[in-house]
Every structure is written in structure tokens, then in C-alpha cells.
Write a structure and sequence with these properties.
By secondary structure, the chain is α+β, with helices and mostly antiparallel strands. Helix content is about 35%, strand content about 15%. It is built from ten helices and nine strands. α1 packs antiparallel against α10, α4 packs across α10 and α5 packs antiparallel against α8. It starts with a helix and ends with a strand.
């Protein structure tokens, strides 16, 4: 919603006072596998939830693009990475554990890798001038020029596969389209020679965490953890494990959900209801069709003049944001922050 606590409070207050339907784009609540996990938890399929493990895999090249060279690289230009990247992940944990009040938070994290002291000997300030660029997995030449030429990345590699996925969603030429409006070999080369996206990842002005762990404690001793990490093959894919007193739920990076029942000792592949792709425009199929589900939900709420159709109330939305701010405060101050039980 906003990059400050007060900004978030002001938005919620304005919407509440003026009876405005507020829907924050926490797309993960609208991603069918995540909704299915909520359904399973609320149905009692795993008994009482004792612990949840949630991993946000940012992707090695995606982090370099967005959080080292890109728009979210510096706190004073945008915000800290937990708020920018994982606000809706914290929202998921709060949503799944809504039966219990959160009573405490701690967090550890840092900018561990993309630092000047990790700059390889013999490397240059810009990738196009670098003698060892071929040996660097974060090379801007590989990421932008070679991707555009399609001469370097095999279709079997995660990078190229993700680009093709974006194109199938109607997002053409991303991420190259971010660095120049009309991509061509000449325009991309000029952008890498002169702009921020051509910088060495170890020689940029970035200052946001490339890894962070958040631990949440809930009333009754229930716990949940969120891990955000840059150094993954998968891009923006979540891995989730829900541990209950009667069973376990697992979500893999492919969006497949499995339920293990302690009594029968059987594993069930849980069916997921996705909207038919034939009925959804390609331009709103992003985030594995969650974008469509979110907008469809919001439009329906507005049409029916019924704010209860939106899955998160303004109070819930504000609570999630404030929890993110508290988690970051805990990291900075190296302490556990306790809330009234």
C-alpha cells in the first residue's frame, strides 16, 4: 500500500471513512493452490496447524535485474526488500494462521553477496567492458543482449523458459523492455553502456537484503517461518509445508498440492480448480492466472457493492503491512518484538 506505516494507516482510514471498497493486489491469496491450502486448513484436514514453512524463491537473475540493478535496488528509492517482494507472503502466513493471534516476530537477513568486496579480480564496472563476463552468471550481456538474440540461452534453461512463459502471458520482450522502450540490439547495447542495467552486480548502489528469514510466533505456541532468498533457479515460485496434528500439506514450485494423512498414512494429490484459460485474456493471465482472479474478484465486489467479496478486509490488510514493518524493525534491531497476547 505504502512505504511507511503512517501511509498505510492513512489509506485504510480514508477508505473506511468514505466507504470505499479496498483491494490490495496481494495476488497470492487469489492463486488457486494458495486458496486450496487455506481451504484444507479451515476444513481441519491436517488438524491444528503447528508450524508453516514458506519459501519465496526470487531467482538469481530476477533479483539481479530488479533488486541489484533495477527499480527496487535501494531503500531510499523504493523500500526494503521484505516489503517490496514478500508483503503478500507475510499476508499468506497471517491468513492461513488466522485462527491464532500473532504474538511475536523476529527476523535475520542481510545483503550478503552483491557487495563490492565480492567483486571478482579483473572484473570491470560494466559488463560490456568486462574480460571475465563469460564466467559470470549475473552478466548483463547474457541477461539482456543474449536473451534478445536467443543465441546463448538453451530452451531447457530456467531463464529462457521463464521468458517464454512471460511471452505466453502476453508480456513480450520482458525484461529487456524495462531497460529500453523499443528493444533492438543497438538500443539494448546503448542502455547497457550508459544505464543502470549494464552495471556489474558487485559495483552497483544497491542496499536491500538478498536473503531474509522471518519467524512468527502465534498464541498457543504455533509458529511460522518465511524465507526469502535470491539464489534460486526458480523465479518467484513458492514452496510451502504446513505441519498439522493430523497431517501435512505440501506445495511444490510447480503449484502442485499434496495432503498426507497421519491416520491412513496415505498421500493425496489435491485437485486445484483453475479458471479456464480459454475464458481469460492473455494480458491478465500473469502470476499463474492469479491476476485475473484478483481483478475478477474486485470487479464483482464493486458491481455488487459488497466489500465482503474481497477476501481481505482493510483491517486485515493494514495488520499484514504493520507486521512486515515490525519484522524489518526486528531485523535491524536484532531482537524479538513481542505483541500483546
Amino acid at each position: 500500500m505504502a512505504t511507511t506505516e503512517q501511509g498505510c494507516r492513512d489509506i485504510v482510514e480514508a477508505c473506511t471513512l468514505n466507504s470505499i471498497i479496498l483491494s490490495v493486489c496481494h495476488v497470492l491469496r487469489h492463486y488457486p493452490p494458495m486458496s486450496k491450502i487455506k481451504e484444507l486448513i479451515d476444513s481441519g484436514a491436517v488438524g491444528d496447524v503447528v508450524n508453516i514453512q514458506h519459501i519465496e524463491q526470487v531467482g538469481f537473475w530476477h533479483f539481479a535485474h530488479s533488486f541489484v540493478r533495477g527499480n527496487w535496488c535501494c531503500e531510499d528509492k523504493s523500500t526494503f526488500s521484505l516489503l517490496a517482494k514478500c508483503c503478500h507472503d507475510v499476508d499468506l502466513l497471517s491468513w492461513w494462521m488466522s485462527k491464532y493471534k500473532c504474538t511475536g516476530v523476529s527476523s535475520f537477513g542481510s545483503l550478503s553477496h552483491f557487495r563490492k568486496e565480492n567483486k571478482p579480480p579483473g572484473s570491470a564496472t560494466r559488463c560490456l567492458d568486462c574480460k571475465i563476463e563469460k564466467d559470470c552468471c549475473y552478466s548483463a550481456k547474457k541477461l539482456y543482449l543474449n536473451m534478445y538474440e536467443k543465441s546463448h540461452w538453451s530452451s531447457t534453461l530456467s531463464f529462457y523458459s521463464y521468458i517464454e512463459y512471460c511471452k505466453s502471458m502476453g508480456i513480450s520482450d520482458w525484461p529487456v523492455s524495462v531497460i529500453c522502450h523499443e528493444p533492438s540490439i543497438d538500443s539494448i547495447t546503448k542502455a547497457l553502456q550508459n544505464g543502470p542495467y549494464g552495471r556489474c552486480v558487485y559495483d552497483s548502489d544497491n542496499d536491500v537484503c538478498d536473503n531474509q528469514v522471518v519467524s512468527l510466533r502465534f498464541f498457543g505456541g504455533h509458529t511460522a517461518t518465511l524465507t526469502m532468498v535470491a539464489f534460486t533457479e526458480s523465479v518467484c515460485k513458492r514452496i510451502v509445508r504446513v505441519f498439522g496434528t493430523k497431517g501435512e500439506i505440501n506445495l511444490n514450485a510447480k503449484g502442485e498440492v499434496q495432503l498426507y494423512d497421519f491416520l491412513s498414512q496415505q498421500t493425496i494429490d489435491v485437485g486445484i480448480d483453475f479458471p479456464s484459460s480459454a475464458s481469460v485474456r492473455r494480458s491478465v493471465m500473469g502470476h499463474d492466472i492469479a491476476d485475473f482472479c484478483l481483478i475478477d474478484n474486485f470487479v464483482h465486489a464493486v458491481a455488487m457493492k459488497d466489500p465482503s467479496i474481497v477476501p481481505a478486509s482493510p483491517k486485515e490488510i493494514l495488520s499484514t503491512h504493520l507486521l512486515v514493518f515490525e519484522a524489518e524493525k526486528a531485523r535491524r534491531e536484532n531482537r524479538v518484538i513481542c505483541f500483546d497476547e
